[in-house]
Design goal:
InterPro entries: Leucine_aapep/pepB, Macro_dom-like, Peptidase_M17_C, Peptidase_M17_N_1. This protein has 464 residues and is an alpha/beta fold. The chain has 2 domains: 132 residues, Leucine Aminopeptidase, subunit E, domain 1 (3-Layer(aba) Sandwich), CATH 3.40.220; 317 residues, Zn peptidases (Aminopeptidase, 3-Layer(aba) Sandwich). It has 16 helices and 20 strands. Strands 7, 8, 9, 10, 11, 14, 15, 16 and 18 form a 9-stranded mixed beta sheet that branches. Strands 1-6-5-2-4-3 form a 6-stranded mixed beta sheet. The longest helix has 22 residues.
């Protein structure tokens, strides 16, 4: 992907091609200022001001390239992150500026629209960078950082499991820690068995090079408010002995999407210098099948001391998160946020675009919902319904890892995690898809950061 710092530049009066933004309601009035040939050009291109429409209009009467661009938007006075993204996708390489206003939030989508994943195949249709100028210089660093974090999620999720195993996730975290001078530590393989038994059990069947591990990083002043970010890092999920069908495995390279979100959020916190003591925890495993796979019916010990009966080996993400959340809680953070591609039930309920959000406190949910709505990263709260805890009862252990019957699957998964978060700790859990099955302007098909900006802007408002 083109470096984001190239795509957004301060406007110092340099040569640039104008872009006019027009709404469908305002198109007729706006078009009256155009010449007959210009209106004819727009008519020939079918441009009416509808959202995401684009057109190129001849402008032979002025110095410059001899044309300007037009983009359709819903409301010219309230731009969104995505309203200029189609322009960024289709315009020729060059330098552009808005003719009558500043792009504001559209700076983000201008960058994300130009993302491409080229690790395994050259993008032969690449046009070169489309650079957008802005007079809002203070916005540049912020939006470049956010777009870079979103690109990190996309890159990691798009990478197949052979090249994004637990060892690669560890390497990404270590690189981030070294860049920002953070403390870094890892517990790997059989060393997990005593202190992190669920992480060990889920990951022990993988090949040695993909051995399970708990990756930790700490950063920031020790006297600052302590927050923990936890991310599910299942590099590939076969389902274990409760094996998935082939169709269910096809996208399971993305089951480490929670770890990618956690890394990206931590990157934003450190790059932007948030005044917190950050504790990042990533339990990362491959849920493989081998002679030593954990089995349905096994009872696992946990870091917290609870026992868990395995009723479904394909409900493994909550197991590894349980040990990590217990560890995070031991240092008494004032807030824990976790990200996980946890349940298909959340996708059935909310579809691919909306992460399910679970919180213990209404105030936490409101902060995240508000931040998501304001920054075009909507999330949807689902109930942490106390009455459903009985669905996780076990006849032989403290609890089961998965409820029978298929009801309230996202809620029962969140209730499982809730048992491992310390009492009175503020906690938010994102059940995110981390994937976009179809492209939208600024949001290509493939790995996706969903819930990342909601969490970041909530943290920035609270601790910035």
């Amino acid at each position: 992907m083109t470096e984001n710092t190239v795509l957004i530049q301060p406007d110092r009066g340099q040569d640039a091609i104008p872009i006019h933004l027009v709404s469908k309601d305002g198109f007729e009035e706006w078009s009256r200022q155009l010449s007959g040939p210009q209106r004819a050009s727009l008519e020939a291109q079918g441009f009416t001001g509808k959202g995401y429409q684009t057109a190129i209009v001849p402008d032979t009467g002025k110095d410059g390239p001899g044309w300007f661009a037009v983009g359709g938007v819903a409301d010219v006075d309230n731009l969104s992150s995505w309203c200029m993204a189609k322009l960024a996708e289709v315009l020729p390489a060059g330098t552009y500026r808005l003719a009558d206003s500043e792009p504001g939030p559209a700076l983000f989508g201008w960058q994300t629209a130009q993302y491409s994943f080229t690790r395994y195949r050259e993008d032969k249709d690449a046009k070169g960078p489309r650079v957008l100028l802005t007079g809002e210089v203070a916005r540049i660093e912020e939006t470049v950082a956010e777009a870079g974090a979103a690109a990190l999620v996309r890159d990691m999720v798009n990478t197949p499991a052979e090249d994004m195993g637990p060892e690669n996730i560890e390497a990404e975290a270590k690189k981030l820690a070294e860049k920002h001078g953070a403390d870094f530590r890892v517990v790997r393989g059989d060393a997990l068995a005593s202190d992190y038994p669920m992480i060990h059990a889920v990951g022990r069947a993988a090949a040695r090079e993909h051995s399970p591990r708990l990756v930790e990083m700490e950063w920031g002043p020790r006297d600052a408010p302590r927050i923990a970010i936890v991310g599910k890092g299942v590099s590939f999920d076969s389902g274990g002995l409760d094996v998935k069908p082939s169709s269910g495995m096809l996208l399971m390279k993305k089951d480490m999407g929670g770890s990618a979100h956690a890394l990206a959020l931590s990157r934003l916190i450190m790059e932007r210098g948030l005044k917190v003591r950050l504790h990042l925890l990533i339990p990362t495993v491959e849920n493989a099948i081998s002679s030593n796979s954990f089995r349905p019916g096994d009872v696992l010990k946990t870091r917290k001391g609870l026992t868990v009966e395995v009723t479904n080996t394909d409900a493994e993400g909550r197991l590894i998160l349980g040990d990590a959340l217990a560890k995070a809680s031991e240092d008494a953070p004032e807030l824990i946020i976790d990200f996980a591609t946890l349940t298909g039930a959340a996708r059935v309920a909310l579809g691919p675009d909306l992460p399910g959000l679970f919180t213990r406190r209404d105030e936490t949910a409101e902060e995240l919902l508000t931040a998501g709505k304001a920054n075009d990263d909507a999330v949807w709260r689902l109930p942490l319904e106390d009455g459903y805890r009985d669905m996780l009862k076990s006849d032989i252990a403290d609890m089961a890892n998965a409820a029978s019957g298929g009801f309230a699957g996202a809620t029962t998964a969140a209730l499982f995690l809730d048992r491992f978060v310390g009492e009175d700790i503020e906690w938010a859990h994102f059940d995110t898809f981390a994937w976009r099955p179809a492209a939208k302007p600024g949001r290509p098909k493939g790995g996706a950061a969903l819930g990342l900006r909601a969490a970041w802007h909530m943290l920035k408002k609270r601790y910035g």
